[in-house]
Design brief:
Helix 5 runs parallel beside helix 6 and helix 7 packs parallel to helix 8. A six-stranded parallel beta sheet has the order 8-9-10-11-12-13. Strands 1, 4, 5, 6 and 19 form a five-stranded antiparallel beta sheet that branches. A hairpin with a 4-residue loop joins strand 4 and strand 5. The relative contact order is 0.16. The longest helix is centred in the first third of the chain and has 22 residues. With 369 residues, it is an alpha/beta fold.
Length: 369
């Protein structure tokens, strides 16, 4: 092992490639903190996190002022110990989005460093359970699009090899049903249609809508209720045959435990950034496996392809490209499947010259011994 001698950070603000509108918000930017950790042998690991819209400077400040100084002199390979120590160091602000997203940027950098030192790709180092993962696309199903546009995009996705697509819901019920029915008619019975409400419904409305969506044979209803309403999710799950998906707005493993123990979901969408990094992501995935529940993570496809390939109960990766302007090579796709990189590390081919050009002014920092 080797001790950490340097932590560098910066932030890039990425604009979405297409207009993204759901039932509660418009996705206008992705503030992306990027962290590089160097050990005494000169090995370097790169990690990152993100926000949808705002909050990136707060995450970066927490890392620069509190977390990064605490890393100097620590053994880089002791990832579990470091993660726990940093969590308790920020006990007053955990569990919460800013702290989890800050922990994730550091934790993913440490895993990248560990994998590079071991000369192993992340999906092998973390488990090596699968060789490829099915892809579904979200890029054409946004709420502001008209039915014809959603149908056309879904047809193109199917022709491109995807076997599933997500359609946002939250319009008046009859409009949602009409849109979903049009997509189903266009793509046929062998194509998965997923829906996402982005926490927009009350319990009674979610139950009513789930029953209406059943006729379209949707693959899941995602975030139908506010994420802290576990009882509501229990009522919904017991009232419909539609699988209930949750996870992108949960920030700790115990929150997932509550959902799983109470049978309040049947799809776990744990997000590696929002859960606090790879260390807790793997715990949630394995916890879900003990309940015979599948993992279909939210966003960050470039990193989730490796994590999904590491565990046996991952079923889908969500296709939303966002790092193209910061990488020299994108995620490998073969006939609708995501293929994990065989390169050592996270499997993300960072373009550091491009990152330098796009760094937000004033965001860069370095902490060293």
């Amino acid at each position: 092992m080797a001790k950490i001698v340097r932590v560098e950070g910066l932030m890039v603000d990425l604009k979405p490639k297409v207009k993204r509108v759901d039932a509660i918000q418009s996705f206008v930017s992705q503030e992306t903190p990027i962290i590089r950790i160097t050990d005494a042998d000169g090995a370097v690991g790169t990690g990152y996190s993100y926000t949808i819209g705002t909050g990136g400077p707060a995450i970066l400040s927490l890392i620069e002022k509190t977390l990064a100084p605490a890393l100097i002199g620590r053994e880089a390979g002791e990832i579990e110990r470091i993660w726990r120590d940093l969590l308790f160091m920020t006990h007053a602000t955990a569990v919460g989005a800013i702290t989890s997203l800050a922990l994730a940027a550091i934790d993913t950098a440490l895993w990248d460093l560990k994998a590079r030192r071991a000369a192993l790709p992340l999906h092998i180092l973390a488990g090596g359970a699968q060789e490829r993962i099915r892809l579904y696309t979200t890029e054409g199903g946004w709420l502001h699009l008209d039915t014809a546009a959603i149908v056309d995009d879904t047809i193109r996705a199917k022709e491109s090899g995807f076997s599933g697509a997500k359609v946002k819901v939250g319009r008046p019920l009859h409009e949602d049903v009409a849109r979903l029915s049009a997509v189903r008619e266009a793509v046929g019975a062998g194509f998965e249609i997923f829906t996402d409400a982005n926490q927009a419904f009350s319990v009674d409305e979610a139950i009513r809508r789930a029953r209406a969506y059943e006729a379209v044979d949707i693959g899941w209803l995602e975030e139908p209720l506010p994420a802290d309403d576990v009882d509501g999710h229990m009522r919904l799950a017991a009232s419909t045959s539609v699988p209930v998906a949750v996870g992108e707005s949960l920030y700790s493993a115990p929150q997932f435990r509550d959902y799983l123990q109470r049978r309040a979901c049947s799809i776990v969408q744990v997000d590696v950034a929002r859960i606090g990094g790879i260390t807790p992501w793997l715990k949630v995935a394995h916890l879900a496996e003990t309940f015979n529940v599948v993992v279909c993570p939210h966003f960050l496809m470039e990193l989730h392809v490796a994590l999904c390939s590491a565990v046996p109960n991952a079923r889908w990766v969500e296709y939303i490209p966002q790092l193209d302007s910061l990488t020299t090579k994108g995620m490998t796709i073969d006939n609708g499947y995501a293929i994990p990189s065989q390169e050592a590390g996270l499997g993300i081919a960072w373009d550091f010259a491009a990152i330098d050009r796009q760094t937000v002014e004033g965001s860069r920092f370095t902490i060293a011994n």
